[in-house]
Amino acid sequence: MKTEQHECSSCMEQKIKEEFATRFGGEGIFYASAGRINLIGEHTDYNGGFVFPGAIDKIIEAEIRPNGTDHVRVFSIDINESAEFGLNEEDAPTQSWARYIFGVCRETIKRGGKVEGFDAVFAGNVPLGAGLSSSAALESCFAYAVNDLFNDNKIDKFELARIGQSTEHNYCGVNCGIMDQFASVFGKKDCLMRLDCRSMEFEYFPFKLDGYKLVLVDSRVKHELADSPYNKRRQSCERVAAKLGIETLRDASMDDLIAIKDQISEEDYMRAEYVIGEKQRVLDVCDALGRGDYATVGERMYQTHAGMSKLYEVSCEELDFLNDLAKECGVTGSRIMGGGFGGCTINLVKDDLYDSFTATAVKKFNEKYGHEPKIIPVVISDGARRLS
Ligand code: GLA
Fold first, then answer.
1. 41 CA to middle of ligand 1, Å?
2. What is the best residue among 38, 39, 40, 43 to mutate for testing ligand 1's pocket, by most ligand atoms within 8 Å of CB?
3. What is the mean pLDDT of residues 328-333?
4. How far away, in angstroms, is 358 Cα from ligand 1 center?
5. Residue 319: is its pLDDT beyond 90?
6. Percent with pLDDT over 70 in the chain
7. Mean pLDDT of 43-54
8. pLDDT score of 44 more than 70
9. Under a CB-based contact definition with an 8 Å cutoff, are residues 158 and 55 in contact?
10. For residues 141 and 61, is the Cβ–Cβ distance under 8 A?
């Protein structure tokens, strides 16, 4: 499906306003939510481990107004398509993008929340399929709006994140963890968040790099998590945990894993080995950041990439190429980010290397794969919010 995204937020907002007025007349309330990065801690969320994400300045924005009926009418500017659906389980729309909004409404209702019909127009500048969680941004934008418009904001923020996560599980076929929706709902300007996905305790970490920058290199290789090996990775982890008699791999050590090596498949062993290593790397990175020890942060990022590529097997040729390239250029840390199977690398680069690294990545990647990757500077921003 062809999609067209607006780069600048004010052009996006203007376009939404015009489209809303043309389709529905008058105006509604504006809401937004954000995509996310994750510094480290990949595929640890559904294993009860730690993650270290932050919301970014790439957002989904929607203008919404109750319409006094029991139907939702919504138009996606980027996809140039409209959808209309009722709020009962059997009313699920066929378009995959509309199922995210339908799912949010249904999951709110299932939790005893109120949802009435509304009209909406939305657009976004979160690159699609880049591993930046455009779907979580869409879910949390509408979850936030439905809470504000129909529930006096009585649904707490953790529940809003869970509404998005359950939408993925029950309406979109992705058995994801809580990281993306959490980051999108709780995101705060200039802060990363270390979340313990077992207790759901979290801490804001003011994010300030001294002499370094974070940059994403988007390979533009699209990934699709529904029906992808993502769910299979999760099943591997659950099988190993069950074998160990524990709820999640959060409670497993390498020694525990070695002890059952001959009772599980080689593949499940590799998956669990990665997860157990990654769990510790998040904690190492948080400590190292606190000391300003960027060398350790970077080292752990490379280790994560190697684990995701060789043990968890969620990388791809293009991302391994970008990772090697980063290493050759002397970049401090680099790794595939997000669920995998395409998308982007996240890179910790010294200020004075930034220009030459990004230029080299664009040139060499283009020479090899015939298209330029997209360079996306990371700006840590606010998560779900009402704009007007
Ligand atoms: C996707 C999922 C998240 C998480 C990451 C991998 O983004 O939605 O829950 O599992 O992959 O860390």
1. 10
2. 43
3. 98
4. 26
5. yes
6. 97
7. 98
8. yes
9. no
10. yes
- Using the predicted structure, report yes or no on whether residue 369 has a pLDDT greater than 70: yes
Distance CA 180, CA 136 (A): 6
State how far the Cα of 277 lies from the Cα of 285, in Å rounded to an integer. Answer: 13
Q: Report residues whose beta carbon is within 6 angstroms of any ligand 1 atom.
A: 42-43, 45-46, 133, 176-177, 179-180, 338-339
Per-residue pLDDT tens digits for 137-154? 999 999 999 999 999 999
- Please name the residue whose Cα sits nearest to atom 9 of ligand 1: 177
What six digits make up the tokens of 76? 């996606």
Percent of the chain with pLDDT over 90: 93
The tokens of 39 are what? 């510094």
Going by DSSP bridges, is the β-strand pair 118-124/81-86 parallel, antiparallel, or unpaired? unpaired
Residues with catalytic roles: 180
d(CA 182, CA 337): 16
CA distance 209 to 204: 15
Whose C-alpha lies nearest to ligand 1, atom 10? 43
Identity of the amino acid at 163: I
Residue at 316: amino acid letter: C
Q: Do the beta carbons of residue 373 and residue 385 sit within 8 Å?
A: no
Residue burial 170-184, b: 16+ Cβ < 10 Å; e: rest: ebbbbbbbbbbbbbb
